[in-house]
Design a protein that fits this description.
Strand order of the largest sheet: 3-2-4-1-5-6
Strand content: 15-25%
Order of helices and strands: EHHEHEHHHEHEE
Radius of gyration: 17 Å
Mean pLDDT: 96
Shape: globular
Number of strands: 6
Structural class: alpha/beta
Largest sheet: 6 strands, mixed
Distance between the termini: 37 Å
Low-confidence stretches: none
Helix content: 25-40%
Length: 204
């Protein structure tokens, strides 16, 4: 039996402004760093065997803060990147509603194969996150693993780990530096905690 500790990155300026990030590399705000430090205190007693983050600075920096002085190996990998949001990146929902009205309407439908131009579908993101989840089961089944990623792609990873249908992607939400915990077994995975932000109380 192992434990997978899943954390979304801390706040970025684009989070604060409500802008779509996707593959755009946006760094943490001061508040985002403080959220990561609060998460580090929450997880201070966990001995992580290994850690993974996406290769975006907002996730890598969050992971580094959480790990602190531990010698835990941290692997920053592109497989954990957020959905590529194509032409939507850098825009608020209102901005892309005005700029791309037809695409905006299409994005409101639960379509696993929709992607904005230059972007990625849920099905495509699910495929790479399923591959990543398979690697976790193969290499780290009985270890304590830290995963720091992005709200959208982490949902796909959770769907894969729990063996849920792809449509379950629309049933989850994940806040900045929220903690989720999945316990892994040879023939199963069980969610013990989801989107817990209690450790962020008092973070300004």
């Amino acid at each position: 039996m192992g434990n997978i500790y899943i954390v979304r990155h801390g706040e970025t300026m684009w989070n604060a402004e409500g802008r779509i990030q996707g593959h755009t590399d946006v760094g943490l705000t001061g508040r985002g760093k403080e959220q990561a430090r609060a998460t580090a205190r929450r997880l201070a007693d966990i001995h992580f065997n290994v850690a993974y983050s996406s290769d975006m600075s907002r996730t890598r920096d969050t992971a580094v803060i959480i790990l602190g002085e531990r010698e835990t190996p941290l692997h920053s990998v592109p497989e954990l990147r957020e959905y590529n949001k194509g032409v939507f990146e850098g825009l608020t929902p209102e901005e892309y509603r005005q700029r791309y009205p037809d695409l905006f309407q299409a994005s409101l439908v639960n379509d696993l194969d929709f992607a904005p131009p230059g972007g990625e579908t849920i099905r495509q993101c699910q495929a790479r996150m399923t591959s990543f989840a398979g690697m976790l089961k193969d290499k780290h089944l009985e270890e304590d693993v830290l995963i720091v990623g992005h709200g959208g792609s982490l949902r796909s990873g959770i769907v894969s780990l729990l063996g849920l249908p792809l449509e379950a992607n629309w049933k989850f939400v994940m806040h900045n530096c929220a903690l989720s915990v999945i316990r892994s077994y040879p023939d199963n995975a069980v969610m013990h905690l989801y989107n817990d932000t209690s450790h962020l109380a008092g973070v300004q």
